[in-house]
From TrEMBL:
Name of the protein: Phenylalanine--tRNA ligase alpha subunit
Residues bound to Mg(2+): 249
A single BP term in Gene Ontology: phenylalanyl-tRNA aminoacylation
Subcellular localization, as worded in the UniProt entry: Cytoplasm
Broad class of enzyme this protein falls into: ligase
Transmembrane segments: none
């Protein structure tokens, strides 16, 4: 019996098998229990002999069972540990890291260049009053030029600013007409345009304003030329074309020579070799006056440029919507390490 049981223990490969061997040999209905139960029927001489034998067999089987159980348990543990092994020499999984948006880079680059020329950086509200967005810029109510910029009105007197030019009026108002102003103002602006490859209902502008005694058109040209060469490269040229804005007189639009591509197939400069990147001019005397400056004593220039256009020109981006649809395949190209 003992040999049979031990052989089975030896062969057992799972803890379940061991348990059933334990039950069948050592359990309440097993053969050894039966022997011990039948002790009463034995003679007093037989009892100690048989008892000792039965206990010994039980002990031997029990010991073997315990030993095998420990073996199997250890085996199971080893197997589990092996399966869960961590190879510390494997390279780690990369953590996805974001980065500043291309437009953020562009605006910061523009800021740096103008800070280098002595301009301070200011901000203004995106929800603007009709007064600052239009009236203080020589665009009275019912002025037809208001149609140049279709607006999102919040109430009759409040709207999403259509340009950053209201910050001109706000800044001059703060300086109370007795100080020179040299500032730029980057920010978001809104127009009721239908979105397409070159239009967006929300886009970015950087306003510039320089007011002092004896500021001239040549100062505007010099500053913009300096900006264009530093930003796009020494070989770039600028050209000023006459234009119209109610808040500047005279008004200009500035083109920059297009080096992205040439000829008729060029979508960026449409084969002309030039692309417009900003509007500007000499601050209108009425605008100076409304802000508390004496136009006989002070003069100034102002401009407003579009960083999206500038980014499209610099990096050959062919659709303004790429800036806002947050396609990481586009955005990641411009993440700096
Ligand atoms: N505010 C004008 C626009 O959005 C640009 C501009 C700014 C023109 C400053 C002249 C002076 O089109």
């Amino acid at each position: 019996l003992q040999q049979e049981a031990l052989a089975k223990v030896k062969e057992a490969t799972t803890l379940d098998e061991l348990q059933s061997i334990r039950v069948s040999y050592l359990g309440k209905k097993g053969p050894i229990t039966e022997v011990l139960r039948g002790m009463g029927k034995l003679s007093p001489e037989e009892r100690p002999v048989i008892g000792e034998l039965a206990n010994k067999v039980r002990e031997t089987i029990a010991n073997q069972l315990d030993e095998k159980k420990q073996q199997l348990e250890k085996l199971a543990l080893d197997k589990k540990l092996e399966a869960e092994t961590i190879d510390v020499t494997l390279p780690g999984r990369p953590v996805a890291v974001g980065g500043p948006h291309l437009l953020t880079h562009i605006v910061e680059e523009i800021e740096d260049l103008f800070i280098g020329m002595g301009f301070e950086v200011r901000e203004g509200p995106e929800v603007e009053t009709d007064y600052y967005n239009f009236e203080a810029l020589n665009l009275p109510k019912d002025h037809p030029a208001r149609d140049m910029q279709d607006s999102f009105y919040v109430t009759e007197e409040l709207l999403l600013r259509t340009h950053t030019s209201p910050v001109q009026a706000r800044t001059m108002g703060e300086y109370k007409g007795n100080k020179s102003v040299k500032m730029i103002c980057p920010g978001k602006v809104y127009r009721r345009d239908t979105d397409d490859a070159t239009h967006s209902h929300q886009f970015t502008q950087v306003e510039g304003l320089y007011v002092d005694k004896d500021v001239r058109m040549s100062d505007l040209k010099g500053v913009l030329n300096q900006f264009a060469k530093q930003f796009f490269g020494e070989e770039r040229e600028i050209r000023l074309r006459p234009s119209f804005f109610p808040f500047t007189e005279p008004s200009v639009e500035m083109d920059i020579s297009c080096k992205v591509c040439h000829g008729e197939g060029c979508s960026v400069c449409k084969g002309t070799g030039w692309i417009e990147i900003l509007g500007g001019g000499m601050v209108h005397p009425r605008v100076l006056e409304m802000a508390g400056y004496d136009p006989k004593e002070y003069s100034g220039f102002a401009f407003g440029m579009g960083p999206e256009r500038i980014a499209m020109l610099k990096y050959g981006v062919d659709d303004i919507r790429h800036f806002y649809t947050n396609d990481l395949r586009f955005l990641k190209q411009y993440h700096k390490a």
